Amino acid sequence: MKKILFFPLLDSLPSGHHQVANAVTEYMNKRSDVIVCKKIDVMSSWNSVIESLVTKTYLGWIQKNPKSYAWVYRKLAYKSKAERSYKHYELLFLKEMEKIIAEEKPDLIICTHAFPSYLVSKLKKSGACSIPLVNVYTDFFINDVWGRECVDYHFVPDISLKFHLIKKYGIGGKNILVTGIPIDESFYSTSLMKKADRELTILLSGGSAGLGKIREIIDNFNRVKGVQLYVLCGNNKQLYKEIFRRNEGNIHPLPYINSRRKMNELYDVADAIITKPGGVTISEAIKKKVPIFVHSALPGQEIINLKQLKEQGLVFTIEEGLDVAKQIKNVLRNEAKMEENQQSLERFSNAQDFREPEEIFHFINSVLDPSYVKVQQTM
User: Fold this and answer.
1) C-beta separation of 174 from 165 below 8 A
2) What is the 3-state secondary structure (H, E, C) of 331-350?
3) Whole-angstrom distance, CA of residue 20 vs CA of residue 77
4) Start and end of every Diacylglycerol glucosyltransferase N-terminal domain (predicted)?
């Protein structure tokens, strides 16, 4: 038996870091019964009460004082320093990480969050850990917290980040794989066919917490003819109840959807999605080739994501103060814009080294067992 230890962060927040860890776990479990995958949050392991407090503080901060959060994030985690030290993190969590690894005895460590990657990298540099380490990046940029020294492989979202790691940090190209942000395997299949002669179906998402300018957008779609709006409320129960009470015929609130199969069905009938620029949701929509409209971006990570996505022509942005429904209809009816967008989505996908979960499985298996590659080549 081989064991893979996944390190996302903040157990009480169903973030993209956890979704990506779950997706790769699924790739492995579906294809092998001799690989054990386990997910651990180093902060919860250290102190679950503190972890819960950090989650609540983070959510409150980005909603109540987004500008200060964005400033702190850029100052402490995204300032383009080649080598940054986080001694306070090490004092609090390095021993806990070392203890977890010693107890779990994994054959491979996969980090889907920068913080545990930094800690494991430090342990490897000091000689306290010799286990292969893989960074799986869950945004469309790489912040300064991620470990780089002693990281064996990097799974990056797009080709530009591969060049970034090579040029800025001197990381060997063979150690960097363009995988996209790994998403649930359900999104690789088509469940339903769109009908050509029907109303527009548009998804509106605020992420797992139901954040962003959801209410303002809903007001723009109130009783708009020819459009059915499905609002993904996430865990925001107050938002769900509010929309439900409005009882508007063309606006349909949906609670947090845990089933990836159900989400895949929604993508298959959608003509567009209005969303924040979170890594996983954007990656799902890109895979499904659904036109993406960004309604707002949370401070910090999502603002930087949006800049990268716009530069690659992968998303459309919604202008404030103008009718949202009209803007989206105009874009969807513009054949030139739609053709250009679809070409951008194709370029993004075609630049990936691995385009199927099967390929990621084989690569990880080869890291777990170097002889596996030889076996595959002789078959």
Assistant:
1) no
2) HHCCHHHHHHHHHHHHHHHH
3) 21
4) 17-183
User: How far apart, in Å, are the Cα atoms of 257 and each of 9, 18, 208, 235, 355?
Assistant: 21, 15, 9, 9, 25
How far is residue 286's CA from residue 350's CA, in Å, rounded to a whole number? 12
Percent of the chain with pLDDT over 70: 84
Interval 164-222: pLDDT, tens: 999 989 999 999 999 999 999 999 988 666 655 578 999 999 766 656 678 888 888 88
Instruction: Extract the tokens encoding 379.
Output: 């078959």
Token representation of residue 8: 């996302």
**Region of residue 194 (phi > 0: left; psi between -120 and 50: alpha; otherwise: beta):** beta
Tokens of 196: 């050509």
Question: What is the C-alpha to C-alpha distance for residues 28 and 31, in angstroms, rounded to an integer?
Answer: 5
**b/e per residue 27-53 (b: at least 16 CB within 10 A):** bbeeebeebbbebbbbbbbbeeeebbe
pLDDT in tens, 81-97: 555 667 777 777 899 99
pLDDT digits (tens, 9 = 90+) for 269-311: 999 999 999 999 999 999 999 999 998 888 888 999 999 999 9
Structural domains of the chain ordered from first start:
2-180+353-378 (3.40.50.2300), 191-350 (3.40.50.2000)
Q: How many CA atoms lie within 13 A of 228 on its CB side?
A: 11
Quick one: how far is CA 30 from the chain centroid?
21
For the record, the structure tokens of 35 come out as: 């690989």
Q: Identify any residues that bridge with 2 across adjacent strands, giving them in sequence order.
A: 35
Residue 241: partners with Cβ closer than 8 Å, 6 or more residues away: none
Give this prediction's pTM: 0.88
Residue 378's pLDDT is 39
For 110, phi then psi, to 5°, come to: -120, 120
Going by C-alpha positions, the residue among 67, 41, 68 that lies closest to residue 55 is 41
Q: What is the pLDDT of residue 28?
A: 97
Other Cβ atoms closer than 10 A to 126: 11
Please list the alpha-helical segments (H only) found in 132-205: 159-169
